[in-house]
Amino acid sequence: MAKKRAQTMEENRGRLIAAARKAFAEQGYAAASMDELTAQAGLTRGALYHNFGDKRGLLAAVVNQIDAEMAARAQEIAAKAGDGWEALLAEGAAYIEMALEPEVQRIVLLDGPAVLGDPSRWDSQNKCLEVTMSTLRRLIAEDVVKPVDPEAAARLINGAALNAALWVAASDEPRDVLAKAVDAFRALATGLLAEPA
User: Fold this and answer.
1) Which InterPro entries match (predicted)?
2) Are residues 8 and 26 in contact, defined by beta-carbon separation less than 8 angstroms?
3) Can you tell me whether residue 197 is helix, strand or coil?
């Protein structure tokens, strides 16, 4: 019985997140109606409050889901570039490039920070930070990267990628800004190399 209840709760969470993701992408967080969203999911406001506390909690869950998907996609792109320095740069550039996607722009890069606050405090961003720190520790040990503090370097690299993505998302000409942002990101990060390429 408890297992079935837990499964039902998980299914309800999934339905609410899917409905919210669609509503937030199409209408934006502020304009999305909780009554319409819960009706779309075939659930009540009570289910929303039980699972997420409020609309803000639901946005946090949606941002977390999309941000995790973005990280996984960026890591896949990085893996194709190898396992060293170029992979790290490819991952950052891929994250910046995802700012061209309407769902990412609106939910993660525009509404997310406006409603949830500083992205560097989000769980999903901190998971990315851990991965970047691990990569940097390895690159420092291999003398590819200068012997700097891995956390400081990871925060700066991830912060640069995030801020570049925020710039692209907020720009009137995102494709034009993208090229500039990726070039600057690569140039900035290259300063960490032990022997610049």
Assistant:
1) Homeodomain-like_sf, HTH-type_TetR-like_transc_reg, HTH_TetR, Rv0078-like_C, Tet_transcr_reg_TetR-rel_C_sf
2) no
3) coil
Total Cβ atoms within 10 A of residue 86: 13
Residue 196 pLDDT exceeds 60:
no
pLDDT, average across residues 120-125: 82
- Which domain range does residue 2 map to? 1-53
pLDDT digits (tens, 9 = 90+) for 9-42: 888 899 999 999 999 999 999 999 988 988 998 9
Three-class secondary structure of residue 193 per DSSP: strand
- If asked whether residues 76 and 152 sit together in one domain, one would say yes
Residue 27 CA to residue 35 CA, distance in Å, equals: 14
Q: Domain count for the chain, please give it.
A: 2
Residue with tokens 């950052």: 92
Q: Write out the DSSP string of 68-127.
A: HHHHHHHHHHHHHT-SSHHHHHHHHHHHHHGGGSHHIIIIIIIIHHHHH--GGGSHHHHH
- CA neighbor of 170 nearest in space, from 124, 105, 115, 123: 105
Residues 185 and 91 in one domain: yes
Q: Would you state the structure tokens that stand for residue 72, as one six-digit string?
A: 């996984």
